[in-house]
Amino acid sequence: MPVDKDTMIEAIDVNKEYRRSGAIIRALADINLTIKSGEFILIQGPTGCGKSTLLNVLSGIDLPDSGKIIFDGENIARAQEARLSKLRRQKIGFVFQDFNLIPTLTAIENVAALLWPTVLREKEIENRAIAALRDVNLLERKDHYPVEMSGGEKQRCGLARAIIHRPRVILADEPTGNLDPESEKQVMDLLKQINKDMETTIIVVTHRGSLASYANKIVKMDKGAIVNIK
Amino acid sequence: MMVLRERKQFIVFCLMYTFLIFWTSYSIELVIKTPGLGLASTSFFMALSVGIFLSLLYAWLIVRRNSKTIATLKCIGWTNKDINSLISGFILFTTFMGFFIIIEVLFHYAAFFVYVNPSSPTVPLVNLLPVFVTFIIFLTFQILAILLANRKILKVRPIIALKRVGV
User: Residue A161: its chain B contacts at CB < 8 A?
Assistant: First the structure.
């Protein structure tokens, strides 16, 4: 569908509204955004400006009220849940603000969990999980449970889970929101490294201006609209 | 593997199932031995009622307690079908463990009974037939529980895995 083959995600006239306590909140207002393959994008703006909603809509986690989301050539704005799940498993890696690791699984199991429902053999999944943990310098913690890891380690484990299937895009919602400055730098450096080495498109939602140096495109939002792209 | 790591919930429900399976089997045994005994029938129906209630409660609790995990799994690409299989495994594994414990206990009890009363012609406590009838009944309950869990899983939206919902 997209004209440009380098276009990874394209949002066309995307709108999204929420109803809260009887009031209608316009979370996304006529969003038009093109994200090219291999870009490192920061989406910034004040709390409640719609940046997380935009991330959710771009990944098919949430559906827009109107408009199109063209993801790698496919309009996912009206796709079925099963199709969206498949798309996320094949092409998208998620990094969450509060890590979202499964507390009853070890680091390696948390990373491998993404591939458990696939046809891959157990050994192959284990090898991939080990490789992903090595990529984020967390191999020595592979048998540790989330409760035994620091915030930075948990986020690196989350990052390993996001790259185990070599996705085309990594979406990170405030990935450093719960981290100290040192861990923040580690995580952002790793994201940059992944972007460079694997040519993965990275989209990071953050309210921290200090992360601007990592991005090659910054999208500023306010009141549900994009106010500036540079 | 995941069900065994949820130790507290697993052990509590496994023991409850074990007790219920024994109660139901014993009630069936009494009904067979003394068909006219109203107390045995009442006990049987009470055991069934508690059994179906607990099965549905377990299914509901598993989904409710793990809703964020389920949402995270959906975010990273698990389909509803994949998650249904996981939760069905939780439910069935707990029930099967209850049966294994009961069968093990009954065998040991029977062995001990025969050892101390070698001349007794009767089979002690509960025969295997009522236990297997109970097994079939409880499997039916678990199918209902799995259907309930599947409905609840469909309602878990991936968006709840993200900290801030909405704007």
Answer: 76
Answer for the pair B139, B95: CB distance below 8 angstroms, yes or no. yes
Domains of chain A: 7-229 (3.40.50.300)
Residue A80 in tokens: 């079925």
Mean predicted confidence (pLDDT) in B147-166:
80
Instruction: Look up the ipTM and state it.
Output: 0.88
Percent pLDDT > 70 in chain A is 98
Token pair in block for residue A65: 């009220």
Beta strands in A22-148 (DSSP E): 23-36, 40-44, 66-71, 74-75, 92-95
> How near does any CA of chain A get to the CA of B115, in Å?
44
Judge whether residue B167 has pLDDT over 50. Answer: no
Per CB-CB distance under 8 Å, the chain A contacts of B78 are: 85, 89, 117
B162–A96: do the CB atoms touch at under 8 Å? yes
Q: Return contacts of B132-137, CB within 8 angstroms, 24+ apart.
A: B133/B25, B133/B28, B134/B21, B134/B24, B134/B25, B134/B28, B135/B21, B135/B99, B137/B24, B137/B48, B137/B51
Q: What's the rounded mean pLDDT across residues A15-30?
A: 88
pTM metric for this prediction = 0.85
Which of B1, B75, B82 to mutate to probe the A interface, most A CBs <10 Å? B75
pLDDT recorded at residue B37:
67
Structural tokens at position A109 = 């199991």
CB atoms within 10 A of CB B39: 11
pLDDT for B162 equals: 75
The amino acid occupying position A18 is Y
**Which residue on chain A is closest to B84 by alpha carbon?**
A117
- The beta-carbon neighbor of A25 closest among B76, B159, B167 is B167
Would you list the DSSP string of A2-25?
-S-TTEEEEEEEEEEEEEETTEEE
Interface probe with A: pick from B73, B162, B163, B165, most Cβ of A within 10 Å: B162
Contacts of B75 in chain A (CB under 8 A): 61, 88, 94, 96, 100
With a CB cutoff of 8 Å and minimum separation 6, the contacts of A182 are A152
